[in-house]
Specification:
The chain is 62% helix and 8% strand. By secondary structure, it is α+β, with helices and mostly antiparallel strands. α6 packs antiparallel against α7, α7 packs parallel to α10 and α13 runs antiparallel to α14.
């Protein structure tokens, strides 16, 4: 924004705009709200936009309000013809016109789309980077069967980020694996509705259901003997799978269910397949192990 030939007042306005908007926008998303004291719609919008800006502050969003009566030159540079006019600025350039947004939901939707496309530096993005290796460690420990240690890892992550859905979901799964389904359900019940819908939390919910369907301490040998004596004893196969799950042997658990499905996929309205799919959800649908088991299931179903 050139200043040659400008009045001292306009030069000062440009300097302030650079300080308050252009410079911060190099790393943050700056919402510029053009308003005036006499503007009724501006006053109605102000609480909404201020609330949203505060909500998104840790994601690198900054709100700057510009009074058009006091900053006519700046308003003219943005061709502001009516107010309220709201722009999103990144690296000194407008990246979105937010003027049509009026509700919190509309602002959230637009900002989520913008933030997903820009390399915004924020506390939230930095925290996500810091948590990534810890979450990976928790998942690795949980998959190894060290449920107590996994519980500790996920608890420490939640201390750092109380609303992290992946950590909460991991903690719930660890509790379920330890036979503490009641504690896991109590944690689920306390979650806010939007967080409770997160896929990571759904994995925790599936883990609770799976934990309640198995009985720990079951002797595997008699179940194996029943299956060897009668390969079509689907109840024995199902119980054998549950016993393997209780022991943390997901490979053996999946094999028993796949065997049952291969022999009679319709047994008790697809009970074995339903249990297998629930196991997939607990492990994680993107997990390579699940992908391998899905291929086995597909080979059976489409043979």
């Amino acid at each position: 924004m050139a200043t040659l030939g400008l009045s001292e007042k306009d030069k000062q306005a440009v300097a302030e705009f650079r300080r308050d908007v252009v410079d911060p926008s190099q790393t943050k998303l700056v919402i510029v709200d053009f308003w005036a004291e006499w503007c009724g719609p501006c006053k109605q919008l102000s609480p909404v936009i201020e609330k949203i800006a505060a909500e998104y502050a840790d994601r690198g969003v900054l709100l700057v309000k510009i009074n058009v009566d006091e900053n006519r030159f700046i308003a003219s540079q943005f061709r502001v013809q009516s107010i309220p006019t709201v722009y999103a600025i990144f690296q000194g350039q407008p990246v979105a016109d937010l003027t049509q947004a009026r509700t919190e939901g509309q602002y959230r939707q637009m900002l989520d789309q913008i933030l997903a496309q820009l390399p915004i530096e924020s506390e939230a993005s930095q925290l996500a980077q810091d948590l990534a290796p810890l979450l990976a460690m928790g998942e690795e420990v949980l998959a190894s069967g060290d449920h107590e240690r996994a519980l500790s890892v996920f608890s420490q992550i939640i201390d750092m980020a109380p609303d992290n859905a992946e950590a909460i979901g991991g903690l719930i799964r660890a509790l379920a694996a330890l036979g503490q389904a009641d504690e896991a359900e109590a944690m689920l019940a306390e979650l806010p509705p939007e967080l409770a819908k997160d896929p990571a939390i759904e994995r925790g919910r599936a883990a609770i259901a799976l934990a309640r369907s198995v009985t720990p301490g079951v002797d595997i040998a008699p179940l194996k003997a029943r299956v060897e004596a009668n390969p079509d004893d689907h109840e024995a196969l199902f119980e054998l799978s549950s016993a393997h799950m209780a022991n943390g042997d997901r490979d053996a658990a999946a094999d028993a269910l796949l065997t049952s499905i291969a022999r009679d996929r319709a047994w008790e309205d697809g009970k074995a397949r339903g249990q297998l799919l629930q196991l997939f959800e607990v492990v994680g649908l993107e997990d390579p192990w699940v992908a391998a088991q899905r291929r086995k299931l597909s080979a059976i179903l489409f043979a």
